[in-house]
Amino acid sequence: MRKRARQVIITAMAGTTLVACAATAADASVIPQAPSSAPLPPRAPVVSPDTARPIPTDLAALGAAFNEALRTAYAKAKKAAALPSGVSTATSFWDAQTASGKPMRYRTIASPYWPLGTKVRITYKKKSAIGVVEDFGPAEWAVAQHDIPAIVDLSEKMMADLTGVASNTVHVRFQVLKWGKGGVYRRSGTGHDLAMGRR
């Protein structure tokens, strides 16, 4: 997560540096001329090719733009950091029906605590897949019987893709990418703190 935040801030700084260089180059391109009695036409503002907005040429405006870029990058990093991630036990299942009403498919995962529609990245060793919570489970007793709570149930197709075995129980790394807006099966129980990112 820190790496992602650092990349966002570096990108913002690079964009601000490009703006400053463009403004300096524009100033240097003006060739002094002999005084003339005719009034000089107003100088058109330099426009950034990627934003199509006038580039501020004074340091105060440039500093303000840089600070705004940093604030935006920090806000994005903070929001990403607020989404749960960690290591859990993952089991697998394949049912004819799902709680969401959607057909069972590769990307279907189940969770007792995450809302339906939640998008989650699942990583096993060096292989990853992105699933969507479309069903509820495992049951409380099934969550609690493992050394690390089993807060996520993968479709057998996803489990087979990640581990080579369709019906399997393994430790995985999970990362919630986006909260869903559907129903929640349970709001407390074994592994709830883990699922919510609270260690």
3D structure, described in words:
- The protein has five helices and six strands, in the order H-H-E-E-E-E-H-E-H-E-H.
- By secondary structure, it is α/β, with parallel strands linked by helices.
- The protein has two domains: 2-27 and 45-81; 85-195, RlpA-like domain (Barwin-like endoglucanases).
- Strand 3 (119-124) and strand 4 (127-135) form a beta hairpin.
- The chain starts with a helix and ends with a helix.
- 23% of the residues are buried.
- Keywords: Signal.
- This is RlpA-like protein double-psi beta-barrel domain-containing protein.
- InterPro entries: RlpA-like_sf.
CATH architecture of the largest domain: Beta Barrel
Radius of gyration from CA coordinates: 26 Å
CATH superfamily of the largest domain, called what? RlpA-like domain
Q: Can you tell me the overall shape?
A: elongated
CATH third-level topology of the largest domain? Barwin-like endoglucanases
The CATH class name of the largest domain reads Mainly Beta
Strand and helix order: HHEEEEHEHEH
Major sheet size, sense and barrel closure: 6 strands, mixed, barrel
Mean pLDDT: 81
Q: How many discrete structural domains?
A: 2
Residue runs with pLDDT of under 50 for 5 or more positions:
18-32
Helix content: 25-40%
Spatial strand arrangement across the major sheet: 1-5-2-4-3-6
Structural class: alpha/beta
Roughly what fraction of the amino acids lie in strands? 15-25%
The first-to-last residue Cα distance is 16 Å
